[in-house]
Backbone:
């Protein structure tokens, strides 16, 4: 019995000593990072069902794995946001504080202001040079920003390389610790300290990449990616990444490499680039392949559209190194096919001020368009267009009609018949013939002019001929002879009050007697001032010399007329695009809508039509549309965004098949309004592309509702500022949550001094009790020995 008690006391003493050692170790490591509270389990020693004492088992940890899992995930999230914030702050520093006004948006606004100043004094050489210098500032600013973005992408790639090396090193250490832990567990040794080391490595690994894990029954912690790709157990997988130089044309996966678990040259390799890596690595890949390329795409878009807008107004201020501007081809082919990158990918890296303008700053006043009209001295035409259309919201002006102009297509008639708008030829005399009571009085007043001989000596010299002809319609020539003696024979009476009325009646009688073709619409009338008017839709020839009895020019002079051929004037309107010369467009007899469109559309070969004008007639409605440009996308307008249309002095007779009202003007007849010009805002045709951008045609900037250069450039700056603000705000929230989880983890798994001191007292008490038991047994043995 004494021996049994002694064994129990000694085992208790040994366990108490072990407990004291564990507690003291806990207390001494209370501030050690990654150290978790250790516990010494103890169990009863029994032989044959009889308890003989206690023993200390392998030391274990007090750790909540679920809480650790949440904490490690949060470590990854915070690391991811911290990495993004670090990189994005470099862009923030480039743009500078708003009050410094050194951002790209501020510099473009400054260029607008300099052009506005130049508009007031377009030939001021100092102001011209100031505009050019500001253009250089903007080009350099865009170049520098593009260079920074490319540099940051390469820095991200270098950091990826370093991070992959660190991950591989951590995975190797974790695998080695897994081996040791498994071995210790197999032989009953404690693995608590090794597990602490492994947890610290897992924490470091979580900073680089988000992981998932599970613990096997043999104590091995199997590390996986968030998507379940195994990274380590007792053997570490190797992550592969190939570093390369990144340029504006580089993109993943074509020319920027991804991340693989296993050698990518083997079929067993698994790519994990786009599997939600999170952590430091995830942020770096997102920066390299998404965030920074998106900024570059917006910058390319800004640089390209700025160059195009200047060029469209006849001033090619910005070009690439070869002096050209990349084409504005859409990323989606027509007809639809495989997406192709826009031609201006990387344009921001090489945009510069046109070398011709650098050499001759006066070009900012005169323009650079070879096919533009020479700008007159002192004119601000080019500068005006720049201020209004490059920096403004209006993309171009257009005239859109409401009238169906399909003459031949709708009514099988000519345009003149369709609109009731005809060619005109009006001959107006210069003499007040109404001052003569009748033609006899006129003849008497003329005296020798008419060479009236005595009645016995004919012939009389008192007649002239009117010849009507319209070759374009195949009408005429048709000739009538006007004899003043015949006119004198017309009796005065109602409607015939004087010599002028007699002559008018004679002319109209001869027109009806021939008869003259109705297509001429020939008629004589009087002016309010008593002058003879002869009107027709064709050419008119006055002939006073061809017959024996002709009155000659002297006789016509007395009537206020002149011999010769008078050409008809066709209905017309003038169209001017930008600074091009205005072009007169006529509606001739026999013309249909086909001929009208031919006269409007510019033909480079024949150089006919209106330069820089896009023409369209809707096949369904017959509505006419005119605007600057060479095609229906307004690609390549020659002279800028403004258009002027001025109608001639013609009015409709209201008889046309199109329904045009009586006395409608030329413009009202064609467009339904005397002022058909309207402004088209940039937003109406998506001035800045937001989708299918970048070398991989996979970038969507999401930028909408931007119509001006300054607004778009400000959105570019704001996008980055907004992203850094959101990132930093998220990081603050996520870091707070991480600290909360870490606090809970420390509370549950860390060392609590007060708790350890309380445990120390308990163990000391147990130690003292075991020591007294041994002392009591020793005294019993001594008394027994003395008794023997």
Residues:
């Amino acid at each position: 019995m004494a021996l049994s008690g002694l064994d129990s006391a000694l085992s208790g003493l040994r366990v108490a000593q072990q407990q004291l050692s564990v507690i003291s170790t806990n207390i001494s490591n209370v501030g050690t990072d990654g150290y978790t509270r250790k516990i010494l389990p103890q169990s009863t020693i029994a032989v044959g069902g009889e308890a003989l004492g206690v023993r200390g088992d392998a030391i274990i940890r007090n750790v909540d794995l679920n809480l650790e899992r949440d904490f490690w995930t949060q470590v990854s999230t915070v690391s991811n946001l911290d990495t993004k914030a670090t990189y994005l702050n470099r862009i923030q520093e480039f743009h500078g504080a708003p009050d410094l006004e050194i951002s790209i948006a501020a510099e473009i606004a400054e260029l607008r202001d300099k052009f506005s100043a130049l508009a007031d004094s377009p030939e001021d050489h100092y102001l011209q040079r100031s505009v050019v210098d500001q253009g250089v500032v903007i080009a350099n600013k865009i170049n520098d920003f593009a260079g920074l973005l490319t540099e940051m992408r390469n820095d991200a790639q270098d950091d990826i390389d370093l991070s992959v090396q660190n991950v591989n090193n951590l995975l190797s250490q974790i695998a080695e610790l897994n081996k040791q832990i498994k071995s210790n567990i197999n032989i009953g040794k404690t693995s608590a300290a090794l597990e602490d080391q492994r947890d610290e490595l897992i924490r470091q690994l979580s900073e680089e990449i988000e992981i998932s894990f599970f613990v096997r029954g043999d104590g091995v912690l199997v590390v996986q990616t968030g998507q379940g790709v195994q990274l380590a157990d007792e053997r570490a997988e190797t992550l592969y990444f190939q570093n390369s130089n990144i340029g504006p044309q580089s993109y993943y996966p074509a020319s920027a490499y991804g991340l693989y678990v296993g050698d990518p040259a083997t079929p067993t390799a698994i790519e994990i680039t786009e599997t939600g890596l999170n952590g430091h690595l995830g942020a770096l890949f997102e920066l390299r392949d998404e965030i920074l390329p998106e900024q570059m795409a917006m910058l390319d878009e800004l640089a390209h559209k700025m160059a195009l807008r200047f060029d469209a107004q006849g001033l090619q201020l910005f070009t690439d190194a070869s002096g050209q501007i990349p084409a504005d081809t859409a990323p989606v082919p027509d007809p639809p096919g495989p997406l192709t990158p826009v031609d201006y990918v990387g344009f921001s890296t090489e945009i510069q001020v046109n070398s011709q303008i650098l050499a001759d700053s006066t070009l900012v006043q005169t323009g650079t368009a070879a096919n533009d009209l020479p700008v007159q001295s002192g004119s601000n035409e080019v500068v005006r267009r720049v201020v209004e259309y490059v920096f403004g919201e209006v993309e171009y002006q257009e005239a859109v009609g409401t009238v169906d102009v399909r003459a031949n297509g709708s009514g099988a008639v000519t345009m003149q018949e369709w609109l009731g708008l005809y060619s005109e030829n009006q001959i107006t005399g210069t003499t007040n013939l109404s001052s003569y009571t009748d033609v006899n009085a006129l003849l008497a007043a003329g005296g020798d002019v008419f060479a009236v001989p005595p009645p016995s000596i004919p012939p009389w010299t008192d007649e002239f001929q009117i010849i009507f002809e319209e070759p374009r319609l195949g009408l005429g020539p048709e000739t009538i002879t006007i004899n003043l003696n015949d006119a004198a024979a017309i009796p005065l009476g109602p409607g015939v009050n004087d010599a002028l009325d007699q002559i008018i009646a004679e002319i109209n009688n001869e027109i009806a007697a021939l008869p003259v073709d109705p297509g001429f619409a020939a008629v004589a009338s009087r002016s309010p001032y008593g002058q003879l008017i002869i009107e027709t839709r064709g050419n008119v020839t006055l002939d006073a010399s061809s017959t024996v009895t002709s009155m000659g020019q002297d006789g016509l002079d007395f009537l206020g007329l002149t011999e010769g051929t008078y050409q008809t004037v066709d209905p017309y309107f003038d169209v001017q695009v930008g600074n091009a010369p205005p072009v007169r467009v006529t509606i001739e007899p026999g013309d249909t809508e086909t001929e009208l469109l031919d006269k409007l559309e510019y033909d480079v070969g024949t150089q006919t039509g209106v330069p820089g004008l896009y023409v369209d007639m809707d096949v369904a409605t017959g509505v006419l549309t005119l605007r600057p440009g060479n095609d229906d996308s307004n690609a390549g307008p020659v002279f800028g965004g403004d258009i002027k249309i001025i109608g001639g002095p013609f009015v409709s007779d209201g008889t046309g098949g199109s329904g045009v009202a009586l006395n409608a003007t030329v413009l009202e007849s064609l467009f339904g309004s005397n002022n058909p010009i309207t402004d088209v805002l940039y937003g109406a045709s998506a001035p800045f592309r937001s989708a299918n951008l970048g070398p991989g045609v996979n970038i969507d900037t999401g930028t909408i509702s931007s119509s001006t250069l300054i607004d778009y450039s400000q959105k570019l700056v704001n996008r980055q500022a907004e992203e850094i603000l959101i990132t930093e705000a998220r990081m603050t929230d996520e870091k707070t949550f991480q600290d909360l989880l870490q606090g809970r983890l420390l509370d549950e798994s860390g060392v609590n001094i007060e708790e350890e001191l309380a445990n120390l007292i308990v163990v000391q008490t147990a130690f003292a009790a075991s020591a007294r038991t041994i002392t009591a047994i020793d005294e019993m043995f001594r008394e027994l020995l003395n008794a023997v």
